[in-house]
Specification:
71% helix, 86 residues, mainly alpha, single chain, elongated
Amino acid sequence: MLLGHSTDLDNVYYKPKPDDLLQEYLKAADSLTINEENRLRRKVQELDFVVIIYSKIDNEDNRRFGKRRSFFINQLLKQNENEILR
């Protein structure tokens, strides 16, 4: 084993592929890192997505559902803002 000898057990043990290892690491990266940069970057992307969705809303829909939609979007933004500040 240490000198390059085979024990014929190589095919018995699970050997994850590098891509599988990367995916598992990325799932836990936020918990493993001290720096808030990744978390904040993702939050900014989420908020950008909400803004893009909101900006693409048709004017007709906005007139019909404007107050309710604005309330919902504001609540969503406040929730994300509170999570960012934690």
